[in-house]
Amino acid sequence: xxxxxxxxxxxxxxxxxxxxxxxxxxxxxxxxxxxxxxxxxxxxxxxxxxxxxxxxxxxxxxxxxxxxxxxxxxxxxxxxxxxxxxxxxxxxxxxxxxxxxxxxxxxxxxxxxxxxxxxxxxxxxxxxxxxxxxxxxxxxxxxxxxxxxxxxxxxxxxxxxxxxxxxxxxxxxxxxxxxxxxxxxxxxxxxxxxxxxxxxxxxxxxxxxxxxxxxxxxxxxxxxxxxxxxxxxxxxxxxxxxxxxxxxxxxxxxxxxxxxxxxxxxxxxxxxxxxxxxxxxxxxxxxxxxxxxxxxxxxxxxxxxxxxxxxxxxxxxxxxxxxxxxxxxxxxxxxxxxxxxxxxxxxxxxxxxxxxxxxxxxxxxxxxxxxxxxxxxxxxxxxxxxxxxxxxxxxxxxxxxxxxxxxxxxxxxxxxxxxxxxxxxxxxxxxxxxxxxxxxx
Length: 441
Ligand SMILES: [Zn+2]
Fold this sequence. Notes:
Largest sheet: 8 strands, parallel
Number of helices: 17
Low-confidence stretches: none
Shape: globular
Distance between the termini: 52 Å
Number of strands: 16
Bound molecules: zinc ion
Strand content: 15-25%
Radius of gyration: 21 Å
Mean pLDDT: 96
């Protein structure tokens, strides 16, 4: 492909033929039509569609995967990456993170989210579930980046009515703003932050609003033992029960962390069809002292998916790394090497994530949205190739991704992302200025 030709491929959706890729153990071609849908996948696609395709992407033996789905992030926290590590959770939040966040501007969130989207594209993620502030600006960043997102405003009423009214208004405004954007890649959700930051009335309002608007709910649930004990002291019941009474547990709900659920709560989440987002790196870094009971949740019928959490507590958005950490943490914590095999960890990052966010099937199949990543096999991490899922989870990281396509549009080709240097430069300037403002106040 000439350089000029390469520029053009990034400009819009084109009918694409991806040749010679490994999908589910077979060498196939994939044809993507001009609507951004996988129109055909198999051995005969090249012959059928060669004339229609405006571009041919030579897959060269790469492994083709559905785009990964990150089901719990605070994307603009990329600006806080590496600002404060190795601290007790409460000190970390109150002394470092919250004082800095108090100085965040809409522009910061825009540049931080641009950086996050770029990092996700580079590591093969094509959709994410985000909760933060200034979400109109996050939406603008996602719109320009070309990937998919469910965006929620972090609703925190701190148990006062005055604050609650403001948070309801912010949630309504975001939903209206996103509807106006009318971009099928971007959806709104209600984002009640957690039971220790949102009153019962606030939780109920979010549940009702989400039901009315037919949008999702994004919440943190039982990350620490302390919040479970506090809930029992305040309400006389465990967090799962409280949330269910408020109408928050639904098949449109993504609950992040879920570390300290007991078995009855897992059953409840399963019965309600909740999606549980495992965040193993963040949990280990902040020492939550318990791993999400994936096996109980799965057995109860809950959908288990995977998230990185924000870049201040991970500090990466690489979902390949996260799938490895998930598989290792589950085995270590539950003292059983058979739990969360590679294949299942990969499903959490793809099919299950797509289901949680309502973005397509999370599978490479005809009729599915063309969210496709190509992982090179010309690398140590994929040599030899006994089992692709084993290599992808245990050996590779996002650095092995060469090409990322979302909604049929090529966002990264042969590791090139247009405009990357500027995105990095603007984000690093925003981060520097933010720290300066916080320190001089
Ligand atoms: Zn979080």
